[in-house]
Amino acid sequence: MKFSELPTPCFVIDKAKLTANLRILKSVRERAGCKILLAQKAFSAFAVYPLVSEYLDGVTASGLFEARLGSEEFRGENHVFCAAYKDDEFDEIASLCGHVVFNSLGQLRRFKGRALRAGAKVGIRVNPEFSTQSGHAIYDPCAEYSRLGVLCADLSEADFDGVSGIHFHTLCEQNSDDLEATLNAVVEKFGKYFKKISWINFGGGHHITRPGYDIDRLVNCVKKVKEEFNLEVYLEPGEAVALNAGFLKSKVLDIVKNGIEIAILDASAACHMPDVIEMPYRPPVLNSGKLGEKPFSYRLAGATCLAGDVIGDYSFDEKLKISDEIVFADMAIYSMVKTNTFNGMPLPSIAVMEEDGDCTIIRNFSYADFKSRLS
């Protein structure tokens, strides 16, 4: 079917744009001589994993379920990092993942032996205590009192016997200048341990496929570590893989007025794109402008009872009418993985759009999906 024939609400994965992103990432792999993994926490649409596996080396997981998904659906390496592993899940996780990264020395002592017996490579996440974030502390792993990563002052107590890697992740939608600055801090604080390991993971948050991203600087950062310390380097972007590679198609259900015209949609910020509220940010809408930029301005909002279920303020060339379609862009990342059924809101269908524009629905949801999550 064509895009116009898809139901609403519906997520649509754009394979042409996804492939374009993957080609950029593959070129980075080849130029830098590193390995690149898909961070499933941002994008877990396993229907396109066969495509992604043609370009990337593997996936990363944040726990048992993502580890299972990566093992079952992706042809490549399977890595895992979790802030704290559960005892009754760990052996299965270690059996599924070739690399297991620990967040604390306590977890390392508790589970290292079991990971090594399962044949996994063991790593430690470190906290460089070097923040490059200018936004909300919620996205800053180096913020004061952060629970993520071992501090330099504490790492001297680590038993590196059996430990082969170091992991750090401090970026969020950032350019490679922030990576370079962070990497310098990591080398300064933790470089003395590099002779004990064979691999290092630079984490995610690298906006590699964003226009204007300095790829040359990223490649140089990777090459520097490989050449100076003879380490295998991993990157694990999530957003960069599927950046701008998806849409959320919605429909106007009603229009109300209270100081501004408000279009109530069958898509919800709270249920279908929670990052709009959490980050917060204003998602792009096709054929729209900023408030007042075009003749007719509207606030777009969801149909839940949450007063703050507001997506943002936009303007259009023509007046909106009930049943008009509103299409949000950049909806492949941190959307499908975060959906919920608050208020009994239906989950959007999921479709894939081929490069010729033909669309196929790969998943529909129903009342059964809502009820099955409850008791």
From TrEMBL:
NCBIfam families: nspC. Keywords: Decarboxylase, Lyase, Pyridoxal phosphate, Spermidine biosynthesis. Its cofactor is pyridoxal 5'-phosphate. One of its GO terms (molecular function) is lyase activity. This is Carboxynorspermidine/carboxyspermidine decarboxylase. Its EC number is 4.1.1.96. It comes from the Bacteria. It holds the Pfam family Orn_DAP_Arg_deC. Residues 83-331 form the Orn/DAP/Arg decarboxylase 2 C-terminal domain. It comes from Intestinicryptomonas porci.
